[in-house]
Here is the input.
Amino acid sequence: MALHVSSAACFFRDFSHRNRRVHTTTVRRGVASEDLAALKSSEEEKLKLGASELKVTRLGIGAWSWGDTSYWNNFEWDDRKLKAAKAAFDASVDCDITFFDTAEVYGSRLSLGAINSETLLGRFIKERKEKDPKVEVAVATKFAALPWRLGRQSVLNALKDSLCRLGVSSVELYQLHWPGVWGNEGYIDGLGDAVEQGLVKAVGVSNYNERRLRDAYEKLKKRGIPLASNQVNYSLIYRAPEENGVKAACDELGISLIAYSPIAQGVLTGKYLPENPPTGPRSRIYTPEFLTRLQPLLNRIREIGEGYSKTPTQVALNWLIAQENVVPIPGAKTAEQAEEFAGALGWRLADEEIYELRSLASEIRPVTGFPVENL
Here is the structure.
């Protein structure tokens, strides 16, 4: 199958991109043979989301930045950025990463965006299928719990609008983007209706705390529908899901945890320094003071990565995957980023390194999360 060959090619591209010194005499416990891993069946590399029948790749791609001009892209969108996003999509599929997460508000007029992320993703999928009809892509999108949306029908109406923008008759995963100020019972009913009407294969929530997560799980369970996932902010330097009971509840109930901002919006890549902080809204979160405190952790991530011939980005993503029942969805703006993300798969950090990185990260005061997490 063509995708398997391209997966191997992606491995070699990833290897050639790195010029770091490799400790060839170091033997790491738990390291898989990457060339063999790259040639594994893509089906073997997938996992079921929760108790649903939906299988997705162990790492997905977030499409938050595609078409967005309010948080990403320095408040501009042009043809160059569009081509880069398309290249990121194609590179992801070439590397056997076929799980893509978007939302109706990404790039929308409501968020002052240039073009809806769903529209772009749908266009990319259509163009790819014209070249390779056999390619299969799993699409996840989200319902915006806006205050004026009431009742279960509002979920179905929004979903049908999303399907129209995506150019598909159904999606693999439909999620509630955040808890509503009110109307949450109706929203959960709407998710169940979407499953029963064949508009989605699985349903999930996002930014749900433990109590709301358990309530949603029980309400859907009464209809015989599993709650597949809870998508939350989770990274090495933002471990609130471990501390507030969300991760434990997901593990207990058999709900997959989808981790957004898994590389802390680029900060864990090592790209940003105190003298070179992120631009735009991120600069208010990842300040020079915070980046200064972060350097010891970044240095250790880099050192560990050198022992595996891996980048800091790949180490940070692998740390999340090693937590089990976690699917990271880093955002890819370029083909190079997508290829680098693929290098987080097919190997595993040693247990002592996982514990060491958590210990180092715990010494850093966590950044502020998104307000919707507190609803």
User: Anything to note?
Assistant: Residues 288-308 form the longest helix (21 residues). The radius of gyration is 20 Å.
